[in-house]
Amino acid sequence: MNERKRVVVFALLIVLFQSSCHKAPTRNRIDENHFPRVILWAWERPEDLQFLDPQRFAVAFLAQTLTLKNDDVIYSPRHQPLKLPPNAKLIAVTRIESQKITHERPLLSEAQRRQLVERIKKTLELPNVSALQLDFDAVTSERNFYQQLLDDLRQTLPDNVPISMTALASFCIGDKWLTDLPVDEAVPMAFRMGTDSDRIKNFLTSGNDFRDGLCRRSYGVALDEPVTTSFAKERRVYVFNSRPWVQSDLAVLEERFGK
Predict the structure, then answer these.
(1) Burial state string for 34-52 with b = 16 or more CB within 10 A and e = fewer than 16
(2) 3-class DSSP assignment, residue 13
(3) Which of 107, 108, 152, 158 has the fewest Cβ atoms within 10 Å of its own Cβ atom?
(4) Neighbours of 18 (CB within 10 A)
């Protein structure tokens, strides 16, 4: 009987070990695609980034907004011009929103998921785009839908295309729901954090790090809201700017994040 118990315990340990190995992120297609360390977010406003050095900076630009309403997906493409150097490395960002009005709340159906996948994949056809990023503030009731969406997207994309996602910084400190997601990185947004701001900034400035492995590959900051961290210099950083980018902003980034 004791021998049988030992066999059972050993088998359980193997299962747990394999499970933990599965959860640990290994591959990072963004690194494989040789993206620069600093990536500028370009949202829905006119942006002229022709002064950008593509060897030192990449751009993650808002390509479209998709709104979930009842059983529909409302498509809104980028409306503002975006000027770039011809060889800039680009990440197409899809913003996903949910209607909050009671009688228009999304069904989170399979049909909506299929529409989202097709719309997101279409952004790969835009010039110079070689990676995708999803920006979806999914509430708890939407997380299963979001995970299934990411699973479907990963299965239908070419293997070398990276998937990035934004994440609330609080998710990366105390919430484990990101662990199994089929993405190459989850970008914790360490800015405009609302009521969590002081707690998370104190956590980071005290030398702590985000706990989820996917959140340790990159992070997001705002140009006007710097956060002191002890992150390795190699960690990729996304930078938000509350106004259109100008060339002098890049000097600030060079000083803050190094060359």
Answers:
(1) ebbbbbbbbbbeebebeeb
(2) helix
(3) 158
(4) 10
Residue 160: partners with Cβ closer than 8 Å, 6 or more residues away:
29, 32, 33
| 3-state helix, strand and coil shares in percent for the chain, rounded to the nearest 5 | 35, 25, 40
- Rounded to a whole number of angstroms, the CA Rg of the chain reads 20
Q: 215, 190 in Cβ contact below 8 A?
A: no
Place of tokens 């299962």: 15
Q: Round to whole Å and give the CA distance between 161 and 92.
A: 11
Could you tell me the pTM of the whole model? Answer: 0.88
Q: Which residue positions in the chain have pLDDT lower than 70?
A: 1-25, 259
Coil, strand, or helix at residue 233? coil
Distance CA 70, CA 56 (A): 43
> What counts of helices (H) and strands (E) characterise the chain?
7, 11
Q: How far apart are CA 131 and CA 92, in angstroms?
A: 6
Rounded to a whole number of angstroms, the distance between the first and last alpha carbons of the chain is 64
- Strands 129-136 and 90-98, by their bridges, are parallel
Q: Which among 92, 111, 102 is positioned nearest to 149, based on CA atoms?
A: 111
